[in-house]
Design goal:
By secondary structure, the chain is an alpha+beta fold. The protein is built from 6 helices and 7 strands, in the order ααααββαβββββα. A hairpin with a 5-residue loop joins β5 and β6.
Length: about 220
């Protein structure tokens, strides 16, 4: 409702842009694509342009930002410039299924990608391939620990409380570690996925993005 009443006159009912305002479904924003940047543009406007600040309360602004995100994601698969079928072969050739699941096939050490096209925009998919450390969900943090007996232990962090930490070891075994038994432990907030920057050709990268963007939730 806020978009239709405040924004559609300039940006168009489908947010594809108008004569005085740019498209908001291109996946990129001229003045920054972070939530904070969008908040500033909506509330303060852009000097020297027809974009003025709007007097909306905080909840309305965040709802508007969420709406813009959903619009971008909904348009993503259709805007992808690559070949999704060729991207499936890039996915297979780089052994992505060792860690990720699409449908009923793949591994479980990385996020399920079966519906990634419904949850991530094209730039977000690209950044997750080229710089996976930018955004790592807590579910995929890892643990490096050493027991007081001198054993090194590593694994994906599954759960933690005051007295213990549960991990999934690289071989898939679940293990609970009592903190009192540890000489040291560290939570590693980096992605276990390697960066593919420089490892994929520009064409292969765009094809892979198109393939992932095509993995969408079934409507209804």
């Amino acid at each position: 409702a806020s978009f239709r009443s405040q924004c559609a006159a300039c940006h168009g009912a489908e947010a594809v842009g108008g004569t005085v305002a740019p498209s908001l479904v291109s996946g990129t924003f001229k003045h920054g694509g972070s939530d904070e940047a969008l908040f500033a543009v909506i509330t303060k406007g852009v000097p020297g342009t027809p974009m003025v600040g709007f007097k909306l309360n905080g909840t309305e602004v965040w709802q508007l930002i969420a709406y813009l995100r959903s619009m971008n994601i909904a348009k993503a698969a259709g805007q992808a410039t690559g070949d999704a079928a060729a991207g499936a072969r890039v996915y297979e050739a780089n052994h992505c299924a060792n860690c990720h699941t699409i449908g009923a096939t793949g591994g479980y050490s990385g996020p399920d990608l079966s519906e990634i096209g419904s949850h991530r925009s094209l730039p977000q998919i690209e950044s997750s391939i080229l710089d996976p450390d930018i955004q790592v969900e807590p579910d995929y943090w890892s643990v490096k620990a050493r027991t007081k007996s001198g054993q090194d232990v590593t694994g994906r962090r599954m759960n933690e409380d005051m007295d213990s930490i549960q991990i999934r070891e690289p071989q898939g075994h679940l293990r609970s570690l009592r903190k009192a038994d540890l000489a040291s432990f560290e939570i590693v907030r980096k992605s276990p996925m390697p960066s593919f920057k420089g490892k994929l050709s520009a064409t292969d990268l765009q094809n892979l993005i198109a393939y992932l963007a095509s993995q969408r939730a079934i409507e209804g």
